[in-house]
Amino acid sequence: MLSPSCLLLSLAAVTAVNASPVQNAARATGSLSTWMAAESPIALQGVLNNIGSTGAWSAGAKAGIVIASPSQNNPDYLYTWTRDSALTFKMIVDTFIATGNTSLESHIEDYVGSQAVLQGVSNPSGTLSTGGLGEPKFNIDETAYTGSWGRPQRDGPALRATALIAYAKYLISNGRTSSVTNIVWPIIRNDLSYVAQYWNQTGYDLWEEVSGSSFFTIAVQHRALVEGSALASSIGSSCSYCDSQAPQLLCFLQNFWTGSYINSNINVNNGRTGKDANSILASIHTFDPSATACDDTTFQPCSAKALANHKQVIDSFRSIYTINSGIAEGTAVAVGRYAEDSYYNGNPWYLNTFAAAEQLYDALYQWNSIGSITVTSVNLAFFQDLDSSIATGTYSSSSATYSTLTSAVKTYADGYMSVAEKYTPSNGSLSEQYSKSDGTPLSAYDLTWSYAAFLTAYARRNSVVPASWAAANPQPKYIIRAGVLLSRAPLLSASPTPFESAFYYYQKRLNERLVLPFTQYFYFKRGTPAYEEWKARRRERAGVAGRDVGNYDAYSQDAWHDEALVGDKEDKPESIVKKLVEEEGKETFPAEEELQDLNKPLNGLRRITEADRKNDTKSLDRALPRTLYLLVKIQKPGMEKGDGYWQFPSAEVEGTEGLREVFTNGEMLVEDNITDCDYFQAAERALESSCGPNVNTWFVANHPVGHYVRTIKPNNPPDSQSQASSSTSSPSSSPANDSQSFTLGTKSFYLKARILAGQADITSNTAGILDYQWLAKDEIEKVVAPMYWKAVKNMLAER
């Protein structure tokens, strides 16, 4: 447990709520503000009742364990879920910090202790070091649940890290850093490590039904890594995998945007539209109140994409629930999980209805902080539901239009809270669902997540917001470059190495020994003309073998050395080439212009060319048996002209470009949907800017064969290879100057290509290229920086 003494819980103002599967009738609505003020203590007590070991409804649960619901049948929710618990305690930590309610801290400390235990419990998903943190639920006595379930679920560790990071920040600000370093940080570090290792693997979504890639999961994982890196720095530690993986998660997150809404689950084939409250929940749980812009990249609640998605998801429920019948667009309705839902026949959920309101309260807070609302073509339909006359543009907080829009959004958000109020029993208890036909509460009663969802929505309505997690701040990142390994293939077979020559010589001699001695009587019958002819020929050769090796006795002491003694040259490269040319000449029909000189002997290509003699490294007619690669000399920024370094052609990926092709989920992207992370023809642009347009090339594949990572150190020229590094960056190695303050370095991904015709021409290049060379692998090592060579050498062919 943490060092501060535990305080007894005393919530005299809280109205007790009795857990009961028997639900009360829907309440009559009155003033929304009055109802919410009355419901708030009920909801908080409902949460505390579900936390062991002192909670009224959590008998048998260990201290700090959150039960999902007291319900033990139809359905049985008397378990603890990592996700539900983390979201609940994130709310508790935020409430504790905002209100100063010290009685909540003992529960937070219990939660810290319980999660340390659960992380070490071996379970069907694995152990602490083999993926066990992805286990979705446990028994309330802190033992593993071993029944069949949708596992793994990869959002839990990220959400738990976020909840504990919020508490860790509080401890640090109150002089209790040692508690963070010794107790809280090790738990957080385990979760961050899991996220960094497994984020790009599929898993079940938060509804535990679909295995694939979940928008909610990726969004909360990205937040956890960003916050985790900052926390590590604040306690004098580091999280290099947070820094390296967070940009990749943010990049992948963009793939869920379809152009009009968020497809909440990709890499699945379930026949759904993808319109899912999953995406609204992601938006509110990655809300950053300090955002200085409505950032589409992180899908902040006020962003154009998040608002467009809000409309699409909400509208998908308007026609499928009886209780939503006749309610026009732009007016709040009951909200479920997704339109195709069949669990309990598919009904609205309290927590999703609260979430729909919370996103709008978050957006209002952000607009007021920014001082304006921007209506774009993406979110225009959302705003037109509230004001049919609205047009695209930016409306400052001093304008009448701003007041009109914010008032309409506030009314719209309150509408969702009113829907929930209408179908909440008179005792204030909140179940998981309410009937799509008449609003009767359904499924698990006193659901912890429902209570927590109400409390966060109510807090946002009152402009009580959590701490910033730096979502809108530029994150340290690497500049992505696309490079090309442009090669000229060998034009001659390679000269044999000394070993190859010796082996050929050995095999040749061995083969000839295997046919000796000659069994003459097997081939020539005595007394036949053939036998007599063979004897005559043998006499002519003085009894030696058919090869011109002089007098030879296969049984003498010198028999093995015969070829060496007479200087046989059949193993020499020139002899091999001559024989190949002769054989080729016999099989090739001569061209018409060559018919006049059929007796002219054929000659192979010269192995030593004029370019070889002059050591002309710009020529493609040199080193014919070798693979040559194009290297270019780049001008160093800020240095005297001519002072440069050698590397393969490359260019920074710009705007909508990527490495070479634009594909997402097997479909070509249209231009409006391309993000900075999608791939398109940057490698080809790099090649043209380096070599000019008159080079005929062929890309071997659309995927890189390797990459090179260069970390920028303080005060180093941004492209200077003298400071190259193949390691990933840490916060201490970030650039010091403002222009590079968020650049960790560059990552160059190299694609393989072949030159088919033409030659490089740098006379009018725009890439700052000073010179070029065509070099073989061993020659490249001599001209490039050592760290660069270390990164690229295994991408190159030896011969």
Automatic annotation (TrEMBL):
<keyword id="KW-0326">Glycosidase</keyword>
<dbReference type="InterPro" id="IPR046966">
    <property type="entry name" value="Glucoamylase_active_site"/>
</dbReference>
<dbReference type="InterPro" id="IPR000165">
    <property type="entry name" value="Glucoamylase"/>
</dbReference>
<feature type="region of interest" description="Disordered">
    <location>
        <begin position="709"/>
        <end position="740"/>
    </location>
</feature>
<feature type="compositionally biased region" description="Low complexity">
    <location>
        <begin position="718"/>
        <end position="740"/>
    </location>
</feature>
<comment type="similarity">
    <text>Belongs to the glycosyl hydrolase 15 family.</text>
</comment>
<dbReference type="InterPro" id="IPR021757">
    <property type="entry name" value="Ribosomal_mL46_N"/>
</dbReference>
<protein>
    <recommendedName>
        <fullName>glucan 1,4-alpha-glucosidase</fullName>
        <ecNumber>3.2.1.3</ecNumber>
    </recommendedName>
</protein>
<dbReference type="InterPro" id="IPR008928">
    <property type="entry name" value="6-hairpin_glycosidase_sf"/>
</dbReference>
<keyword id="KW-0119">Carbohydrate metabolism</keyword>
<feature type="domain" description="GH15-like">
    <location>
        <begin position="42"/>
        <end position="458"/>
    </location>
</feature>
<dbReference type="InterPro" id="IPR033650">
    <property type="entry name" value="Ribosomal_mL46_NUDIX"/>
</dbReference>
<dbReference type="GO" id="GO:0000324">
    <property type="term" value="C:fungal-type vacuole"/>
</dbReference>
<dbReference type="InterPro" id="IPR012341">
    <property type="entry name" value="6hp_glycosidase-like_sf"/>
</dbReference>
<dbReference type="GO" id="GO:0004339">
    <property type="term" value="F:glucan 1,4-alpha-glucosidase activity"/>
</dbReference>
<dbReference type="Pfam" id="PF11788">
    <property type="entry name" value="MRP-L46"/>
</dbReference>
<keyword id="KW-0624">Polysaccharide degradation</keyword>
<dbReference type="InterPro" id="IPR011613">
    <property type="entry name" value="GH15-like"/>
</dbReference>
<keyword id="KW-0325">Glycoprotein</keyword>
<keyword id="KW-0378">Hydrolase</keyword>
<keyword id="KW-0732">Signal</keyword>
<feature type="domain" description="Large ribosomal subunit protein mL46 N-terminal">
    <location>
        <begin position="480"/>
        <end position="612"/>
    </location>
</feature>
<dbReference type="GO" id="GO:0000272">
    <property type="term" value="P:polysaccharide catabolic process"/>
</dbReference>
<dbReference type="Pfam" id="PF00723">
    <property type="entry name" value="Glyco_hydro_15"/>
</dbReference>
<feature type="signal peptide">
    <location>
        <begin position="1"/>
        <end position="19"/>
    </location>
</feature>
